[in-house]
Amino acid sequence: MSGDGQVGIVLVSHSREVAAAVAELARGLAGGGTTAPVAAAGGTPDGGLGTSSELITRAAESVDAGAGVAVLVDLGSAVLTVKSLLAEGDELPEGTRLVDAPFLEGAVAAVVTASAGGDLDAVTAAASEAYGYRKE
Amino acid sequence: MLDADFFRRWLSSCAVLVDREAEWLTELDSAIGDADHGSNLQRGFAAVTAVLEKESPNAPGAVLMLAGRQLISSVGGASGPLYGTLLRRTGKALGDVAEVTPAQLAEALRMGVAAVAQLGGAKAGDKTMLDALEPAVAALGDTTDSFAAARDAAEQGALATVPMQAHKGRASYLGERSIGHQDPGATSSALIVAALAEAVA
């Protein structure tokens, strides 16, 4: 990755409210104040449940500072839409990566790591490791 | 030979058939999915029709690439990226020639279907689109006469999903309760193959 900026984080959910709330939670748990850029891409443009490639593309562009963009997704069409946009080649900023991680826990780990200055590999690893966090 | 007009006819037939069967697709999807398959595809193929009227690509590959891209951006459900990938990969395989043979289309569609399988991670028998698409492309041969055989194979494939248990997508959460319902994705896939047969008629 090139550029001195922080890694950008995009949160894609079927629901506008879920994406926005998880973004807010991750920012808050990252210590508030200045965090790495986070953008929510939830639901369809009219506010319904679903996935919008337009909202995803716009969100990715808005957080791209040249250090790469980590995209976290909830399920189903969110996963497939991001995969197919990446397969297009030119739809998402260079250095955009789909991160295999649990949505909420991964988002928190990604935002904390990116805010601490971690590069795209570090952000991806931190988010994916969230799968290993057991609750009992 | 099949030119860009043939592919425009195919896609407009898709829009007509999806429109006509939208209620049924949504009904099937309300049994094992989230009850939006008909309306999602209606929106998607209406957008495809509109973009093809606005821009008129003059090569088969370009028509399919444009249509696929439009489906990815307008459907809003998993069927958007899946059908979008089917059309885009098929279009890419056809290249930028002005006309293609039925045999070339058959080969390109096989690549498109393989790309769908890869994207969704599904295989035959998982109660998905592939259960209609795979038999359809297997039935395609060197002539346009084989399009009718592909249509019949896709319809049989869709019907054969009834006793299957879903292993992919929202329906898989239902486990054994997904048995006894026809898969909406396989059903819409059969419509898309039927539209191919209509485009030569």
Automatic annotation (TrEMBL), chain A:
GO molecular function: phosphoenolpyruvate-glycerone phosphotransferase activity
Alphabetized Pfam families for the sequence: EIIA-man (PF03610)
Keywords: Transferase
InterPro entries on file: DhaM (IPR039643), PTS_EIIA_man-typ (IPR004701), PTS_EIIA_man-typ_sf (IPR036662)
Gene3D superfamilies from the UniProt entry: Phosphotransferase system, mannose-type IIA component
SUPFAM superfamilies: PTS system fructose IIA component-like
GO cellular component, one term: membrane
GO process terms (BP): glycerol catabolic process; phosphoenolpyruvate-dependent sugar phosphotransferase system
Domain PTS EIIA type-4: 6-136
Protein name, entry field: PTS fructose transporter subunit IIA
Organism in which the protein naturally occurs: Streptomyces jumonjinensis
UniProtKB/TrEMBL annotation, chain B:
DhaL domain location: 5-198
A Pfam family: Dak2
Annotated keywords: Kinase, Transferase
Alphabetical list of InterPro entries matching this protein: DhaK_L_YcgS, DhaL_dom, DhaL_dom_sf, Dihydroxyacetone_Kinase
Domain of life where this protein originates: Bacteria
Alphabetical list of SUPFAM superfamilies matching this protein: DhaL-like
GO biological process terms, semicolon-separated: glycerol catabolic process
Signal peptide residue numbers: none
GO CC term (a single one): cytosol
Keyword Repeat annotated: no
SMART domains membership: Dak2
GO molecular function, one term: glycerone kinase activity
Protein name, UniProt field: Dihydroxyacetone kinase subunit L
Species, as recorded: Streptomyces jumonjinensis
